[in-house]
Design goal:
disordered C terminus, single chain
Length: 1193
């Protein structure tokens, strides 16, 4: 074979190289809203982040690793100087037809982009411009659209109908202006808030659209506003620039075509990712060399982790993948400049298509509240029906008198032609009476409750965010409240589903032990000065120090001259080379010293590379085709001939290295379960057995393990792999499956090198937190991708598992065996009534159980267990476990995790919490709440959750009571006025009652009141059970509230009625008395329930009474309004003050008596703790125990 022809063939193959990304989960998630695909796509398995040091990272970090020219002494001299491809990404199943990125690109499904020809690109189809708009409204559309959105609340429509009815002359009960005031205030407050938020969006849009970018115009780069950029144009951006559009890279300042980008604006991750330009465009300078070509790519879609396209240039067809595209919002780092062609612009960019947030969740308390609102609506209908029927009866009985009654004159004799006057016939009058009743009694449905709930949630969120007990100093992050509408759900959690790595543990990996060729190096680790090298007169050190094994450190310095030292050499070389870590050199305060920061998305991977550096194998440089490693002071360059990155099916990664001596080897590392299936056990079987023993020992103490294997490739093997890879990488359909098949065929008959053990320490306070949650009767389930031994070890150290627990372990490979194990487990739980039981089940078993008829058995078994520990589970299995409980019980579920693989369960649970950890921010971005440490879950649930639930439950019931007592006073008055629906209370007082007179105290108390102190709630976690048992809001409390409301309304109405029965007092005067009496009463009622008084509480309650008095006086001094001077006449008499005082006493006596009886004879846990707190019995919680009521379900 001629040297030149072979070189051309290899270059052509390299030109067609393309990496692929993972899409399998989209098929499983076909019913999931498309907007969440980017977050779900990254979810593969817990192993993807925790079991392999090359954790699954988004495809934005992958790249095409092209080899440099081989050295002349290569054993493959006949191959000449080759350029070979980076390996497969892998990780998906064979089913790929569901994704745009995996379908064959045809004319219908593709967009054609003519490189450097925007006019021709947009000639057939005018693609979106690059102007973006995140604002919802314009000046013209704000009013109609905002009102349309607000009236999605059915209650608002109800009040709008009421206001419209009141505008009709036949139904006008209140003044037309007064009737629309409450709804107008609510709509105005919301509109102002929305307008302010949208103004900020408009401001941000203007800044973004007017940013300047360098665009190639007439062979020169000129400054152009971002909003004017078009698809097909070539743009140039420099270091630290934000990318204005989705672009395909053409060239970079790096001679190998690599560009480092930061995607923190896109997915929240700060680690650098690599992107690559094609070799055919890399060497061209757009200003000098004409670049003409056609890119055929998929239509715009939301998949930020996938891209499928082909590029025709100079008659060559090149495949483009995720590693060739840079998305809008990314920032160029560690690269001087880059040039690319725009393929998606403006609203069609992937970032803009994914601009919406996570699905909104609805509070369980609000859902139950709606049931009571329906009951109140029926009660309102009943009142109105009763009034209209009584009015009809009254009209029939006085039918002969209607001609002379003032309000029911049948005829109008003022004109020559006699006409009907106010009377429209019995049927119509009854109907009008019903509608007028609805208008008069409208506040039975509390419109102010909705806005009050929103304000209370904002106040509660403020105090949660400002809580220093939930401030994480390590990450300098405070608690984040990302979903305001479910604050109160935090007080009702029954199940907590937690990830392990990064959630219970720190996810800061530390290399601890190594097993190398059957020898266990697990002695005492010591501190070392750290390995360093000299580069151009500067000292380079690893940024992170690693403790080392003294014996292993000495052996690593020998080199690979002896047989024993050879394996140590291969082991640490494998750790330094088999990864996707990018070494970044950073300056220090000492100008002669620099630090190497190993950038990677996996803490496991970083820990292994730092460990290799500590033992003298320092990764110095990585380009698209080679790596440079300093090995004990000698710098060696290795050609990266190919790489098959980690995927969830293989559970391993491999790299093909060209060594300086001309040999080629494949290095593989991965999970033990995966690696031992490809190890050649016929060679060094004793070493394999010894390694397995060491792995079990490491796992038993909670260490994370990986196995390393190596094999030298012969010329035919390498050529066979290269040929198979060419075919797979250029395939249009089934590319991922083909690439994975190539990897599997390569990764065989390995020689075992050793195994690594990494410690992922528990976060501070995790054992205590789990113990507190268990005492609170919260079931904690751990769902992890780690191996079973590691998970069990962490379970014991975190106090999730205890020595007195009976463990039921289910590790099955068939559906039949799973069913048998579940039956045996149920029988065991039945026989162990008292002994706590822990269920331990692996992901393989869950494959056969979830979504099958065995689900119900699993639910029954898990419900009877104190703890459930799921090992080796995939992200969708995590979501399936959450759904198992959520769909079969009314118990509240909470999921907490830190990685992208936890997004599924976070969004599935009633409450999702993201940990701001080491694995990016996908979990945080998909969560309802976010915090820095798992231990913060205790104050969040036991303290803030309890307070939020107790306050919100009380506020809802109080709002029902407050409005109903006022409505019932109006109802009683109607019974004594011939059912004419005239009111003694002025229309303005009726309107201001729920808006001004009584609204502020409700909100203030719901934000500030505390039924128990933080100390008591933390000392006695059992108190959290009040929320699980719905003690603050339930049907019993609702009906008791209605009964109390009925009594108080009777007292308020009838005491003044009887007191002034035979007097000449007018309706307006007694109306003022009723107004003041109701306002005084509801505020005193509220004051009776306040536990923690503050000056703000005093000001709101007593200030509300004062404001009411001022308003009543102000209304009565206006001559044009009814009741002029009435309050002054009334207040001048002693009977007024006696009535006012008597009403308060008589109305609250029953309530006071019942409260006294309950607190002394049938106290709840909360009341017991409050009494103990009051008398100082909780000062020493460790010695003073309080007897709590048994858990009631």
């Amino acid at each position: 074979m001629h040297h030149s022809s072979l070189r051309k063939r290899v270059v052509a193959v390299f030109d067609r190289f393309k990496l692929s990304w993972i899409f399998t989960l989209l098929l499983l998630l076909k019913n999931t809203p498309a907007i969440f695909y980017p977050l779900w796509l990254l979810i593969v398995t817990d192993n993807s982040q925790h079991q392999s040091p090359n954790t699954l990272q988004d495809s934005s970090s992958e790249g095409e690793i092209r080899s440099k020219t081989w050295s002349a002494n290569s054993v493959f001299v006949n191959l000449g100087s080759k350029r070979l491809s980076h390996g497969s990404r892998g990780g998906a199943t064979d089913s790929e037809a569901f994704s745009m990125s995996h379908r064959e690109i045809n004319v219908e499904d593709a967009r054609l982009v003519y490189v450097n020809d925007a006019l021709k690109t947009n000639e057939r189809f005018e693609f979106a411009g690059n102007s973006i708009r995140t604002a919802k409204y314009s000046v013209l559309s704000f009013l109609p659209r905002n009102l349309f959105e607000q009236f999605h609340r059915v209650a608002y429509i109800y009040f709008l109908i009421i206001a419209i009815l009141n505008q009709l002359p036949q139904l006008a009960v209140f003044g037309r202006g007064a009737s629309i005031l409450p709804l107008s205030v609510v709509l105005l407050v919301t509109a102002v808030k929305d307008a302010y938020e949208d103004w900020r969006r408009h401001k941000s849009d203007r800044i973004e659209n007017n940013r300047m970018s360098s665009v190639l115009v007439n062979d020169r780069f000129k400054q152009k506003k971002c909003k004017d950029i078009q698809v097909g144009e070539i743009i140039k951006f420099s270091a630290d620039d934000t990318i204005p559009s989705d672009i395909v890279l053409l060239s970079t300042s790096d001679p190998t075509g690599v560009a480092y980008i930061q995607t923190i604006n896109l997915d929240g991750e700060s680690n650098l990712k690599t992107r690559y330009a094609k070799q055919e465009t890399l060497s061209r300078t757009p200003e000098k060399d004409m670049i003409n070509g056609i890119i055929k790519c998929e239509k715009p879609n939301r998949n930020i982790y996938g891209f499928h396209a082909t590029m025709e240039i100079d008659g060559k067809h090149l495949s483009l993948g995720p590693s060739n595209i840079v998305l809008r919002g990314c920032v160029l780092k560690n690269t001087n400049w880059a040039i690319g062609v725009v393929v998606y612009a403006g609203r069609e960019t992937k970032a803009m298509l994914n601009s919406s947030g996570a699905p909104s969740k609805r509070s369980r308390l609000e859902t139950r509240m709606n049931r009571e609102i329906i009951l109140l609506s029926l009660f309102l209908v009943a009142l109105c029906t009763a009034v209209s029927i009584c009015a009809g009866v009254w009209l029939r009985e006085h039918e002969n008198e209607l001609e002379f009654l003032q309000f029911y004159r049948k005829k109008d004799y003022s004109q020559p032609q006699v006409k009907n006057y106010n009377y429209s016939g019995l049927g119509v009058e009854v109907f009008f009476t019903f509608l007028m009743s609805v208008i008069v009694f409208q506040i039975m449905i509390p419109i102010s409750l909705y806005i009050s709930m929103e304000l209370v949630r904002v106040g509660q969120a403020y105090f949660m965010i400002r809580d220093d007990k939930m401030y994480d100093e390590m990450s300098n992050s405070r608690f984040q409240c990302r979903a305001l509408n479910i604050n109160e759900d935090l007080g009702q959690i029954k199940y907590v589903f937690s990830d392990k790595t990064g959630t219970l543990t720190e996810n800061k990996m530390e290399f601890k032990h190594a097993s190398i060729f059957g020898v266990d190096y697990s002695g005492e680790n010591i501190d070392s000065d750290g390995y360093f090298i000299q580069v151009n007169g500067h000292v380079w050190r690893p940024k992170m120090k690693v403790k080392v094994d003294k014996e292993l450190l000495e052996l690593s310095k020998i080199g690979n001259n002896s047989k024993d030292s050879k394996w140590i050499y291969d082991f640490f070389l494998s750790l330094a080379a088999c990864n996707t870590i990018v070494p970044i050199v950073i300056d220090t305060s000492n100008p002669d010293e620099k630090l190497i920061d190993y950038q990677g998305e996996s803490p496991d991977e970083q820990a292994l590379v730092y460990a290799a550096a500590a033992y003298g194998f320092m990764l110095m440089e990585r380009t698209s085709g080679h790596i440079v490693i300093d090995i004990q002071g000698e710098r060696q360059r290795f050609n990266v001939l190919g790489m098959h990155e980690f995927d969830s099916d293989r559970k391993r990664m491999s790299v093909i290295l060209g060594f300086p001596n001309g040999t080629v080897k494949v290095i593989v590392k991965g999970a033990d379960t995966s690696m031992f299936t490809i190890i050649d056990k016929s060679v060094n079987s004793d070493v394999t057995r010894a390694t397995e023993t060491h792995l079990n020992s490491y796992s038993s103490i909670g260490l994370r393990t990986l196995v390393v294997g190596i094999r030298e490739l012969s010329v035919p093997e390498f050529e066979h792999w290269q040929s198979a890879y060419e075919t797979a990488s250029t395939a249009v359909n089934g590319r991922v499956a083909l690439l994975r098949k190539v990897a599997v065929n390569l990764e065989t008959d390995l020689e075992i090198v050793g195994a690594s053990a990494i410690e992922d320490r528990l976060q501070t306070g995790v054992p205590e937190a789990i113990e507190s949650l268990r005492k609170a009767d919260i079931k904690v389930w751990v769902l992890t991708g780690d191996k079973q031994e590691t998970a069990i070890s962490i379970g014991y150290s975190s106090r999730l598992l205890t020595s007195n627990m009976t463990q039921i372990v289910i590790n099955c490979n068939t559906k039949m065996s799973c069913g048998k194990s579940l039956e045996d487990g149920l029988i065991m739980c039945t026989n162990l009534d008292v002994t706590p039981v822990a269920l331990i089940i692996d992901g393989t078993s869950l494959v056969y159980i979830l979504d099958s008829d065995l689900e119900e058995q699993l639910f029954q078994l898990a419900s009877n267990c104190t703890v459930v520990l799921c090992c080796r589970v995939a992200p969708l299995q995590k979501a399936g476990i959450v759904a198992l409980i959520k769909n079969r019980t009314d118990d509240m579920t909470l999921a907490i995790g830190d990685g992208a693989n936890d997004v599924s369960m976070i969004q599935m649970a009633d409450v999702g919490i993201g940990i701001s950890g080491q694995e990016g921010r996908q979990a945080v971005m998909a969560s309802d709440f976010a915090m820095g440490q798992f231990r913060f879950l205790v104050p969040l649930l036991l303290v803030h959750g309890h307070w939020n639930y107790q306050r919100m439950g009380y506020m809802i019931l109080y709002n029902f009571y407050r409005n109903a007592v006022f409505v019932l006073v109006l109802f009683w008055y109607v019974l004594f006025t011939g059912f004419t629906l005239t009111t003694a209370i002025t229309e303005w007082s009726s309107v201001l009652y729920s808006v001004l007179y009584t609204s502020v105290p409700t909100i203030v108390i719901a934000i500030l009141d505390k039924d128990l102190s933080r100390r008591s709630l933390l000392a006695y976690p059992q108190l959290y059970g009040a929320g699980q048992r719905h003690e603050s809001y339930n049907a019993k409390l609702f009906w008791l509230t209605i009964a109390d409301t009925l009594w108080q309304s009777i007292v308020v109405f009838y005491v003044p009625l009887f007191a002034y029965w035979k007097t000449d007092i007018d309706g307006s005067s007694v109306g003022d008395l009723w107004t003041l009496a109701v306002v005084f009463l509801v505020n005193i009622h509220l004051a009776m329930d306040v536990v923690r008084w503050t000056w703000v509480s005093h000001a709101s309650i007593w200030g509300s009474i004062l404001v009411t008095c001022v308003c009543v006086v102000a209304i009565d001094v206006i001559p044009v309004l009814p009741g002029y001077w009435a309050i002054f006449e009334l207040a001048s008499k002693e009977s007024f003050w006696i009535c006012l005082l008597g009403i308060q006493i008589a109305a609250v006596v029953p309530r006071f008596g019942i409260k006294m009886y309950v607190q002394h004879c049938e106290p709840s846990d909360i009341q017991i703790a409050r009494e103990a707190e009051k008398f100082g019995n909780l000062i020493e919680p460790t010695t003073q125990e309080i007897e709590m009521n048994s858990t009631r379900r």
